[in-house]
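Long-time lurker. I teach an intro course on protein structure, and each term I like to show students one example going from raw sequence to a predicted 3D structure in token notation. This year I'd like something fresh instead of my usual example. Would anyone be willing to generate the tokens for the chain below so I can use it in lecture? Attribution to the forum is fine with me.
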Amino acid sequence: MQPETTDDQPTRVMVVDDHPMWRDAVERDLQAAGFDVVGVASNGTEALARFPACRPQVVVLDLQIPEPNGVAVTAEVLRQDPAARVLILSASGEQADVLEAVKAGATGYLVKSASREELLSAVRRVAAGDTVFTPGLAGLVLGEFRRLLEPVEDPMRPQLTERETEILKMVAKGMSYKQIAERLVLSHRTVQNHVQNTLRKLQMHNRVELTRWAIEQGLDEDD
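-- Reply from a regular --
Happy to contribute to a lecture. Here you go:
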């Protein structure tokens, strides 16, 4: 099995879940797929204590863990390392739980009924900077943010190129970098570069912030 790599190194993952059998199974699946599981934890306190030394690129995190809960852990992990990615793996698909996790900065949300392959694919995509949701939840999240955020006309809005705006609209609609690259006949790297340029112009740190801003501007609406 070839390692799942980022910049020629295995992608580092931490698994946080208070159910030992589930946690061990996820750890085994990730290791078998070539990921580097750099740490595990059974509660929020352990997760935050181990995170600085482990420096995972992706945290696979249950929401309902002993305090602090998954939402609080997500917010603190991203405060410490804005480049980290958090993938929620929860038994709950409730709207309130999903939105809380996303607002805290999670870049993915899967329910535990997901298959092994769906989990591995989600970890790969989150590590690559995509947002990933169990089918049905992406529309819920976009719809809720559209309802909560009034479109803002900002005279100081940074000037984006036509291509950056085109890609940003696709990001706002939940498309992956791969899908955007295929639609625009560009390389995956070119799409990533455009997104990084957009992040820099908007003074944002990650794709979640970018998606929120794009939805706020109404860029997820069909033309």
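Some talking points for your students: The longest strand covers residues 36-41. The chain has two domains: 5-142, 153-216.
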